[in-house]
Amino acid sequence: MGGCFSKPKPVELKIEVVLPEKERGKEELSASGKGSPRAYQGNGTARHFHTEERLPTPHPYPSPQDCVEAAVCHVKDLENGQMREVELGWGKVLLVKDNGEFHALGHKCPHYGAPLVKGVLSRGRVRCPWHGACFNISTGDLEDFPGLDSLHKFQVKIEKEKVYVRASKQALQLQRRTKVMAKCISPSAGYSGSTNVLIVGAGAAGLVCAETLRQEGFSDRIVLCTLDRHLPYDRPKLSKSLDTQPEQLALRPKEFFRAYGIEVLTEAQVVTVDVRNKKVMFKDGFKLEYSKLLLAPGSSPKTLSCKGKEVENVFTIRTPEDANRVVRLARGRNVVVVGAGFLGMEVAAYLTEKAHSVSVVELEETPFRRFLGERVGRALMKMFENNRVKFYMQTEVSELRAQEGKLKEVVLKSSKVVRADVCVVGIGAVPATGFLRQSGIGLDSRGFIPVNKMMQTNVPGVFAAGDAVTFPLAWRNNRKVNIPHWQMAHAQGRVAAQNMLAQEAEISTVPYLWTAMFGKSLRYTGYGEGFDDVIIQGDLEELKFVAFYTKSDEVIAVASMNYDPIVSKVAEVLASGRAIRKREVELFVLHSKTGDMSWLTGKGS
Fold this sequence. Notes:
The protein is α+β, with helices and mostly antiparallel strands. The chain has twelve helices and 38 strands.
């Protein structure tokens, strides 16, 4: 667990042996050299399976010279419920005091490196201030998402009123720990025609499902198939940083999939699912039997239906190739972005420094209006206008005009003509579930897959997760909702895997999302659909604020900029089952000039 020696606690039943990541990487690389992926024929098409490889033997106990130990503070230096970053020479450690006991953990969130000392400590876990991932302070284990890895846990001892921390130097430098996983020992792994678990879609839900199965000791065959040509990657980064290369976006290296026997079929399109015979068919005619199925196909971007929609240089952004091409063509040119939602606004923000001009076309009066409300939307719009972005609001595109086949102008319904060399369309998405229409797997009128709290569809043994599902949101009275966010997809993938193994897990996570524009981050937690009032504390013009979205007398969502860790604090309160009343917020805004948030951790109004 990152420490060099440890006395087992009598209550601990599970001992994890963790191979430090550097060594693991080296050994996996050499292991992966032993055999190339096998190709199977399916109607004459070579199909690549990344086959399982021999796992390196863990070597968990570092020698004493690989360890560092130091007194980091006096026992009275920390109050209960306090966290502090302490230096151990080879790196920093997060020291936590909770219920009179000290814990030492990695100090950075493995997701994007946020300093956890600025996060929220509550109910035996620390929640990241940036994106809401949660880590158990007793084990370092990841308990809520986003991200894939856990924290190292270091050994603490108290001698003569001083707190000592002992850790391996390697763990201090790595700042992340991949949980122990089973490898594939299934004899069927060499046979192309059947798999124990088939996962359709390799986004966050699909990958987390596969990893959870392995973490829980599942050693049968797992096949993950994706329309993409890449191994699973960090899709939210696409619209925030358009020229990032596919290899920089990868969530796990190729060696990881080989070492843990997670076979990935890239550029593989499922066309039919036969639930009676538990079989799927791919576009190239290849058939695969399964015993458990996870459907996580995600969504497909909506496209324009106006005159001239087929002209060149009009894009939706779904893959790294789309994003890279947009940046390449936009340099020094005129860009029109259609849609002022998260994707459109992130793209517009990113391209302002690259393009000659950036214009945004939107049907609503203000960007993000339905999601963040009029006032917050207007404040964000002003930030964009200060960065030379021009808005055409309450209108839509009526025609795309070309010159020699390439886009030259965008004509709006208001009859305004905007010069455009590149057009990016961000007008929402639809669930990519067309292939399920004749399958007997239930779809709602909009094409979403309804699931229960255990991520089960109407067909036994078939689970679904991610952007294409509607599910009961526990803390909003089990209202059936669709939440197409990265963190939620992770959580659903995990619950689906646990229920494939009959663990009877239920989805209970509180939604958490973020966006980044012009180097500024907006964080959001809850589910704000149907809010009837917004209470704002702070300064909207300075973009230092927190907005509480209420419905009748209850807070249903919170957004903030430059006000950390308020959103993580609210997420923890909602996750604990406590409702936040509108009156509490109104009193806070009325009396608080300091931004003091201590009222939130009280026991209710």
